[in-house]
Amino acid sequence: MFSNRLLASLLTGIFWVFVTAPAGALSARATAGVDLQARLKEVEREPKLHDAMLKLGGKVASICDHCHGVGGNSPQPNIPNLASQNPVYHLDQLRKYANGQRRDEFMERMIKVMNADEKVGMVLFYAHQAVSRKPVSNAALVARGKTLYTKACIGCHDATGHGDETLARIAGQQPVYLSASLKRYRAESGERLDRDMAKSTKPMTDADIDALVAFMMAME
Ligand code: HEC
Ligand code: HEC
Q1: Minimal CB count within 10 Å: which of 46, 110, 178, 212?
Q2: 67 in ligand 1 pocket by Cβ < 6 Å?
Q3: CATH superfamily entry for domain 2-127
Q4: Does pTM surpass 0.85?
Q5: With a 6 A CB cut-off, is 104 part of the ligand 1 pocket?
Q6: Among the atoms of ligand 2, which is closest to the Cα of residue 204?
């Protein structure tokens, strides 16, 4: 715990010095009450602003990459990829961490130091990064996962797992992170709450979750 707290303080400090201060001119328009989703739409409509925000997003990402990996391809099974994540979903998760609907001590602190444009630039930057493929190690488990997925998940997450504006990309996601997320939804413990996901995971055993995770990780 101590080293996590230390890392959190260090990284949030670095964030202020290297991202927030030099980006001041661009982010001067950003204030606490900004509607992030509306700002994202505005940025997507204006090519020049879009380019500037991508640059700012790249700077922000250089801090996040310490854990989430270069270009958002996480090197650690318990930390999610951010590469190719859908920007609307991505911003919504930042909102959930910030208002306590989703709990993770480190992420809650990290988000507090970001201003609105840093958040919007960052989600745009990661949306442009490709997810690296992972080798399939257990084909039988993947096949079992596919059967479960087709029955219980495909209706919302579709056959590709790429999601859409409001749904996460789950294809190629990190296994320990996926498993922990599904178990949190199933337990309805407050770390992560969603009515649809609680209902979908309720009938799943731990072994079912292992199979689903193997399948989602193998999706391109
Ligand atoms: C010290 C390591 C660390 C750093 C640095 C870090 N994160 Fe995270 N992040 C995590 C962990 C661990 C999780 C999984 C938490 C959970 O299960 O809710 C996570 C989860 C997330 C999620 C949820 C992903 C999803 O699929 O729902 C987002 C979004 C995110 N981080 C964004 C960021 C951004 C943006 C930055 C940089 C400003 C950042 N993180 C920096 C460790 C880190
Ligand atoms: C009725 C629609 C629906 C169904 C069915 C459904 N999901 Fe979801 N799923 C969602 C929504 C909505 C979210 C985002 C919830 C949130 O904000 O935490 C989500 C989130 C997730 C996440 C978290 C992604 C991330 O990046 O953290 C995973 C993993 C996931 N679903 C997997 C599954 C699996 C596996 C199944 C089948 C057992 C399933 N879902 C069935 C709607 C659905």
Answers
A1: 46
A2: yes
A3: Cytochrome c-like domain (1.10.760.10)
A4: yes
A5: yes
A6: 38
